[in-house]
């Protein structure tokens, strides 16, 4: 897989990089993160200056502008080739604690897109909430943490960034203080998160003890000759896997996900299940390829991590899909489906063989899947947010006949469901296709087969939603559908359009992702 | 000068436009859109003549009009990686000639329909003329196709149109059933054709008919070891090409009603008679033979396929002719004669007689269209009575119909000097001289020769029963008169049935040594215009046959062959004369004894196919059981297993956060233990 740079953007490419006539200073590579941080601080300031404003439109606009700026910057850098081999390689800042490369920018773009959708949709979701100010600042600051997590290249920054994502998330899940489910979910999330963080940081300390460094590159070098400490390092790596599993809602640290996604406000569920999960995968991809020799020869630790991830991927996707099939509530079904998709994305770490020719393709396909997932899953949760706002029930039966009262949004939801199931011609089909094809080319046909079987099963429960919306007769509950929340509608439609537009636009997405992933293996 | 080839797409488009016009505005047009159809086919006919003249002046033309799929390599695929799917036109002597035949017949059928449909007050005329227009357009598209895939698509359109037109009187019970039968039986052959098309693409990466990169040329190179064609399972190139050729042949056998897929054609008589004329003479049935002729360069490379084509053709020629012996209905006799005559064409193609096959395709188009239109005229006159035993004595009342029908019958029976004599004689001659060294081919020739007296017998049985003797019913005594729109087409075709044979008087040339009167040979050999790889002498060079002669040379062989077949034809005619050219003819079928029943029932072909269909129904129901029981069982099993296990998962998900913390810790610990043991960390 060669890295192709469009020649027309060469002048831009030179700007933030070291080459060319007038390059931007290196710190500007952190622009997307800085834009999010700035927006978060501005939101806090606005809330302090106008504490009694009852409308949250301004807050929503500020947050959206900040996340759009982050999206635009990361998109620009991606198009210009910043931090890519063609323009001088990855940009490292703060003594290599932060690395800006294709992977970081790609995931920053995913996080920024999801954040934009979520903050726009939240204007209508939180329209009569008393204190919306904190909500927006927490979302945007958590997004900043996610973007930082995708760029972190030292175990210390990784841990800090991870907590920067986790702490606002706990508060966000419990944000509906009057709602018992929300508060309970927040507490559970916090407790499980605390345990996971403890395990994770313990794992970091063990790795540090074995290698003597926190920088990923130094850790990689030390892994070549661990001596007696191979066991210590191995235990540390496994504990770190647990930390990543918590962020990505994968087995064995997936228990929190259904309860939290169900109890949290729906926009927060969308945010956590799409952006937070993607950020977790970003850091896992980076740590395992750069520090723990995934895709290289098996180190002194004596374990092929790809095989571990293969087992986890199979268990995760199977468990997620099987559990989703028996749910009665749509939101909880989506929560389990989110676990299932974490299993698919894990293929990007699992179908990696030592020196395999398609390693970059598989991991890139996994990244592209997370990109598409960012839109279709966020859109699905935002549709649920809309239904929650209307006060229609939560079960499949309650959704009966929604297509008659909200046709546009229902079409969008149909697109999300079929795309999540992986039906052509929607985005989810292409990303899954490339993912499974990459796995097959790398010799992991059985993994692709399990993934395909799971996709078939998933069609069952996704189509239940579509059936309820379009085919079943409307119930009295639909009388509650009385309003047209503009911003929420807009966000759902935009997500649906993005899911469909991926059809012609998938080439650039998969190429960028594969180039970014290939650079990691280089 | 404006290039005629630029108008080739218009030849196809004009009837298509008439289809659209008749469909959309037929209700508001005079005569239900008939004039639009006549104008369109007349326009196509004139353009075709122009194209023919341009080819005669040394032109040829191949052009890709539209590329609808282009790929620069399919990852992980088999065979050649670069495939383009295109629409294009190929004009060479063969297709130019066929264009003229098809447009001429189509135009005459349109005119005749004025008399048969409009004057008889048939309903739904716009639908009828729309069908005719689309039928003609599809066939013309098939004729000019420059690649196999495009040919296949128009081939299917032709099949669809035949379905629509055979079932035109869909409110009666017979026609819809016949239409379905025609559609399904030909579709059965087309499945093989489709697989063949895919096989051609997989093997050669192209399906074009003409050019140095066409698949017949590539196949030639592959057999010479100069081109590396993809073959499955490591088969020899020759073996695989035979298989591909037979697959494509499946489509031709279905459409051209060759044994064993001929059963749809007699039933197709349920369609309006002008449609039968179009189907039998110029479109649907001709498509199969034309397809084989179009890719003849591929077939001549594989002797096995050639032998099979010849044998199937010879067998069909005899087999169908015997079934025509005892039929009572005018159109039924003609239907079996069509099957039989296309059998001759297949025999010619299989015997290496490319020119002979095209020659017979042409003469047959004229005289069979004539006979069907003549039958249509009789049916008009007889108030839609088709049973020949209800007719008799029509000679006096319908002179134009009688004389033209007689010309057509003489041509069909192969009586000198009518058109059919020349073409049939050339087929038998080719089969004989090539068959002297090939026992299988000689067998095919023998069957073809045996069919000659049978053909003459049933043809004149039909003529005598219909036109001679005393009228046997009141209607026959006072038939309905027919108008110019019936007589006109009959006259044109009647003249052609008499003189068309003169374009290719090979026997005369060989015996008397007059050069240059074998026009069709020169035409198809590229003496005027055409592609060098699509000429008859190129095919002859590639072909597997050598010529042998009897009685010491070419001239005696020609004379003996022609003499024997003419004698046999006259013998059949004479027998029919003796038995049926009397005032009160009797059936005389009792003399056949048990054979009669067999013939009446068409050798129980339909029953056999129904029984075979019954077997397939058994297979289908077994497959259904398998699907319901095993596949669905597995799917249901998976989902119920998943529902049950999903339920387990739900039970683990207790909602108590301490359980989660415990499970989480246990899970991570378990992971550490397993991996630690595997990785040897605790040693």
How much helical structure, as a percent, in the residues of chain A? over 70%
State the order of secondary-structure elements of chain A, H for helix, E for strand.
HHHEEHHHHHHHHHHHHHHHH
Q: How helical, in percent, are the residues of chain B? A: 55-70%
What is Rg of chain B?
30 Å
**Could you state the order of secondary-structure elements of chain B as H and E?**
HHEEHHHHHHHHHHHHHHHHHHHHHHHHH
- Terminal Cα separation of chain B, in Å? 94 Å
Please identify the structural class of chain B as seen in this structure: mainly alpha
Give the overall average pLDDT of chain B: 81
> Strand portion of chain B, in percent?
under 5%
How many helix segments of chain A? 19
* Biggest sheet architecture of chain B: 2 strands, antiparallel
Biggest beta-sheet profile of chain A: 2 strands, antiparallel
Principal-axes geometry of chain A comes out as globular
Helical stretch count of chain B? Answer: 27
Task: Describe this protein with a few key phrases.
heterodimer; A: 522 residues; mainly alpha; two-stranded antiparallel sheet; disordered N terminus; B: 683 residues; two-stranded antiparallel ribbon; 27 helices; 69% helix; globular; NADH dehydrogenase subunit N (chain A)
């Amino acid at each position: 897989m060669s890295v192709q740079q469009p020649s027309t953007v060469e002048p831009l490419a030179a700007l933030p990089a070291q080459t060319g006539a007038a390059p931007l200073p290196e710190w500007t590579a952190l622009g997307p993160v800085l834009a999010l941080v700035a927006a978060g601080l501005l939101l806090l300031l606005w809330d302090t200056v106008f504490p009694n404003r009852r409308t949250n439109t301004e807050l929503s606009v500020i947050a959206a502008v900040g996340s759009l700026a982050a999206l635009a910057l990361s998109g620009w850098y991606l198009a210009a080739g910043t931090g890519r081999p063609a323009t001088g390689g990855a940009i490292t800042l703060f003594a290599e604690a932060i690395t800006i490369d294709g992977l970081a920018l790609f995931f920053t773009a995913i996080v920024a897109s999801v954040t934009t959708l979520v903050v726009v949709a939240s204007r209508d979701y939180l329209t009569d909430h008393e204190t919306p100010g904190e909500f927006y600042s927490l979302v945007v600051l958590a997004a900043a943490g996610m973007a930082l997590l995708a760029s972190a290249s030292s175990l210390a920054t990784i841990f800090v960034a991870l907590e920067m994502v986790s702490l606002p998330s706990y508060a966000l899940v419990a944000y509906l203080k009057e709602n018992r489910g929300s508060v309970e979910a927040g507490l559970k999330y916090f407790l499980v998160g605390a345990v996971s963080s403890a395990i994770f940081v313990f794992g970091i300390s063990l790795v540090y003890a074995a290698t003597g460094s926190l920088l990923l590159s130094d850790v990689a070098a030390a892994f070549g000759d661990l001596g007696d400490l191979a066991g210590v390092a191995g235990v540390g790596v496994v504990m770190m896997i647990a930390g990543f599993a918590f962020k990505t809602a994968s087995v064995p640290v997936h228990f929190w996900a259904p309860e939290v996604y169900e109890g949290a406000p729906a926009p927060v569920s969308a945010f956590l299940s799409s952006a937070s999960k993607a950020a977790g995968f970003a850091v896992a991809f980076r740590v395992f390829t750069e520090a723990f020799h995934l895709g290289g020869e098996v180190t002194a630790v004596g374990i092929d991590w790809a095989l571990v991830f293969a087992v986890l991927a199979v268990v995760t996707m199977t468990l997620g899909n099987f559990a989703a099939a028996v749910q009665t509530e749509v939101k909880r079904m989506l929560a389990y489906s989110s676990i299932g998709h974490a299993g698919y994305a894990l293929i990007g770490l699992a179908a990696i063989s030592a020196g395999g020719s398609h390693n970059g393709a598989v991991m890139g396909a996994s990244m592209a899947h997370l990109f598409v997932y960012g839109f279709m899953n966020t859109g699905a949760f935002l549709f649920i947010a809309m239904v929650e706002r209307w006060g229609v029930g939560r079960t499949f039966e309650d959704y009966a006949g929604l297509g008659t009262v909200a046709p546009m949004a229902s079409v969008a939801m149909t697109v999300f469901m079929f795309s999540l199931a992986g039906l052509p011609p929607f985005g989810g089909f292409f990303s899954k296709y490339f993912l499974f094809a990459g796995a097959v080319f790398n010799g992991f046909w059985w993994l692709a087969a399990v993934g395909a079987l799971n996709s078939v099963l998933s069609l069952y429960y996704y189509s239940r939603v579509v059936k309820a919306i379009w085919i079943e007769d409307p119930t009295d509950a639909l009388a509650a559908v009385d309003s047209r929340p503009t911003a929420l509608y807009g966000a759902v439609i935009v997500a649906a359009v993005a899911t469909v537009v991926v059809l012609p636009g998938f080439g650039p997405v998969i190429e960028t992702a594969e180039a970014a992933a290939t650079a990691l293996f280089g | 000068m404006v290039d005629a080839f630029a108008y080739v797409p218009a030849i196809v488009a004009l009837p298509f436009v008439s289809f659209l016009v008749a469909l959309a505005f037929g209700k508001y047009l005079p005569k239900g859109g008939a004039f639009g159809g006549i104008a369109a086919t007349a326009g196509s006919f004139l353009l075709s003549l122009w194209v023919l003249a341009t080819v005669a002046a040394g032109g040829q033309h191949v052009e890709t009009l539209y590329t609808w799929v282009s790929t620069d390599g399919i990852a992980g695929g088999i065979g050649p990686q670069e495939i383009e799917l295109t629409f294009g036109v190929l004009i060479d002597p063969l297709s130019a000639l066929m264009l003229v035949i098809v447009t001429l017949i189509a135009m005459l059928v349109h005119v005749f329909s004025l008399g048969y449909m409009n004057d008889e007050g048939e309903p739904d005329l716009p639908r009828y003329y729309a069908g005719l227009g689309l039928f003609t357009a599809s066939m013309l598209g098939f004729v000019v196709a420059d690649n196999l895939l495009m040919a296949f698509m128009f081939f299917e359109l032709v099949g669809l149109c035949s379905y629509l037109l055979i079932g035109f009187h869909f409110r009666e019970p017979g026609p819809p059933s016949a239409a379905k039968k025609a559609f399904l039986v030909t579709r059965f052959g087309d499945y093989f054709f489709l697989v063949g098309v895919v096989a051609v693409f997989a093997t050669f990466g192209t399906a074009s008919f003409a050019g140095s990169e066409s698949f017949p040329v590539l196949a030639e190179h592959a057999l010479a070891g100069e081109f590396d064609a993809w073959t499955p399972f490591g088969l020899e190139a020759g073996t695989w090409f035979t298989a591909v050729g037979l697959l494509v042949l499946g489509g031709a056998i279905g459409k051209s009603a060759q044994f064993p897929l001929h059963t749809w054609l007699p039933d197709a008589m349920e369609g309006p008679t002008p449609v039968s004329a179009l189907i039998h003479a110029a479109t649907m049935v001709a498509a199969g033979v034309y397809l084989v002729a179009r890719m003849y360069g591929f077939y001549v490379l594989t002797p096995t396929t050639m032998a099979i084509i010849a044998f199937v053709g010879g067998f069909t020629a005899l087999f169908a002719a015997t079934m025509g012996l005892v039929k009572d209905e005018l159109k039924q006799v003609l239907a079996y004669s069509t099957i039989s005559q296309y059998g001759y064409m297949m025999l010619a193609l299989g015997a290496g007689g490319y020119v002979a096959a095209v020659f017979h395709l042409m003469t047959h188009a004229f005289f069979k269209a004539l006979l069907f239109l003549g039958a249509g005229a009789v049916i008009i006159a007889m108030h839609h009575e088709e049973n020949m035993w209800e007719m008799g004595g029509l000679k006096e009342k319908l002179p134009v119909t009688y004389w033209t029908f007689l010309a057509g019958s003489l041509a069909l029976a192969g009586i000198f000097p009518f058109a059919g004599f020349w073409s049939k004689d050339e087929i038998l001659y080719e089969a004989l001289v090539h068959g002297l060294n090939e026992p299988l081919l000689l067998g095919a020739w023998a069957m073809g020769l045996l069919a000659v007296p049978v053909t003459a017998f049933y043809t004149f049985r039909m003529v005598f029963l219909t036109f001679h003797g005393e009228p046997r019913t009141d209607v026959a005594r006072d038939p309905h008169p027919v108008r110019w729109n019936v007589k006109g087409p009959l006259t044109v075709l009647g003249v052609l049935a008499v003189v068309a044979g003169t374009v290719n008087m090979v026997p005369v040339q060989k015996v008397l040594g007059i050069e240059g009167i074998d026009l069709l040979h020169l035409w198809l050999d590229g003496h005027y215009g055409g592609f060098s790889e699509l000429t008859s002498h190129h095919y002859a060079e590639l072909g597997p046959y050598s010529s042998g002669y009897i009685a010491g040379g070419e001239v005696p062989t020609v004379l003996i062959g022609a003499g024997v077949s003419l004698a046999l034809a006259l013998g059949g005619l004479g027998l029919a004369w003796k038995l049926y050219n009397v005032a009160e003819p009797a059936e005389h079928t009792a003399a056949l004894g048990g054979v009669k029943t067999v013939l009446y029932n068409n050798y129980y072909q339909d029953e056999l196919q129904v029984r075979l269909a019954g077997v397939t129904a058994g297979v289908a129901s077994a497959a259904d059981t398998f699907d319901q029981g095993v596949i669905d069982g597995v799917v249901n099993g998976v989902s119920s297993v998943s529902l049950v296990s999903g339920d387990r998962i739900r039970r683990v998900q207790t909602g108590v956060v301490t359980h989660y913390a415990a499970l989480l810790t246990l899970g991570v610990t378990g992971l550490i233990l397993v991996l630690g043991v595997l990785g040897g960390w605790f040693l």
